[in-house]
Amino acid sequence: MKKFTLFLLIGFLSWGLQAQSEFSKPLSGIDWVKIETKSNIMVKTHDKNEMLIKISDPKPKREKAQGLKLLGASGTDNTNIGFNVAQAGNNLIVENIRKNQEAEIYLPKSRTLPLPTLGEG
Questions:
Q1: Strand locations in 1-121 (E)
Q2: Structure confidence by residue, pLDDT tens digits, 10-23
Q3: pTM of the entire structure?
Q4: For the chain, which residues make up each domain, given as ranges?
């Protein structure tokens, strides 16, 4: 019985220490959402009036890195999942700081999203 209780206690503690894998931001007052990334991002729609970012492979922070923030060319990680989300007026700018991090971004169906094209066409 002691071993089972110890196993449950360790399980609950490790569950609480897992890396965060989602970030959400309400979109009230936002007209445009601009996504800047060099990684694979899939944009999907949902029925909520918020932006939701889900990363596919969360990596737990090492003990030595606790309290540190990821810093990239586009700013600091203010989501704790490798993205910088900043509001500029009525625009929301979402930048992926981590290289090679795949993610899914959920936006409301009615949201405007600029999509640049590569090449001519």
A1: 22-26, 32-36, 41-46, 50-55, 71-72, 75-76, 83-88, 91-96, 103-108
A2: 544 444 444 458 99
A3: 0.69
A4: 20-108
